[in-house]
Amino acid sequence: MSMIPPTETHQEKKVNIKASTKKGKPIFYNPTELKAARAKLEANLAGHKPEKKYTGPIRLMVKWCFPMTGKHQDGEYKTTKPDTDNLQKMLKDVMTDLGFWTDDALVASEIVEKFWAKIPGIYVVIESL
């Protein structure tokens, strides 16, 4: 998907301290920026949804390519935030909601990399195992 990847992640959920809690548990909500990042992923992924949901074990390979800044080189690994596990959480949640697979627990193998790139985007390959 040719796009500037969102940098907001699932970890940025907020707790509503003022609201009452449900059964003693805090109430979480998604801030506006997180909702926008999720909507951006949904819009870009929707057109790539497979005709049939994956139902067996899969390998998910994702390359997160962020726009180059400063003195970074094209293809250089990005070692700053956001963390790959946080990026993947929202991506897999969106793919589950869109119907790419029956459950993201099917992802038995995962290869995730993040780079600085002249051409930003998120490149995804799903492979049946």
Structural features, described:
It holds the Pfam family RusA. InterPro entries: Endonuclease_RusA-like, RusA-like_sf. This is Endodeoxyribonuclease RusA. The structure is a single chain. By secondary structure, the chain is an alpha+beta fold. The protein has a single domain (10-128), classed as 60s Ribosomal Protein L30, Chain: A. The chain has helices at residues 32-45, 84-98, and strands at residues 14-15, 28-29, 58-67, 107-117, 121-128. The two termini are 23 Å apart.
CATH structural architecture: 2-Layer Sandwich
Order of helices and strands: EEHEHEE
Q: State the total count of DSSP E strands.
A: 5
User: What is the end-to-end distance?
Assistant: 23 Å
By oligomeric state, this entry counts as single chain
* Tally of contiguous helical segments: 2
CATH level 1 class label:
Alpha Beta
Q: What fold name stands as the CATH topology?
A: 60s Ribosomal Protein L30, Chain: A
What percent of the residues sit in helical stretches (DSSP H or I)?
Answer: 10-25%
**How many domains is the backbone divided into?**
1
- How big a fraction of the residues is strand? 25-35%
CATH H-level name... which superfamily? Answer: Holliday junction resolvase RusA
Q: Which geometry do the CA atoms define? A: globular
How do the strands line up in the largest sheet?
A: 4-3-5
Uncertain segments of ≥5 residues (pLDDT<50)? Answer: none
The largest sheet is:
3 strands, mixed
List its traits.
129 residues, alpha+beta, 60s Ribosomal Protein L30, Chain: A, 5 strands
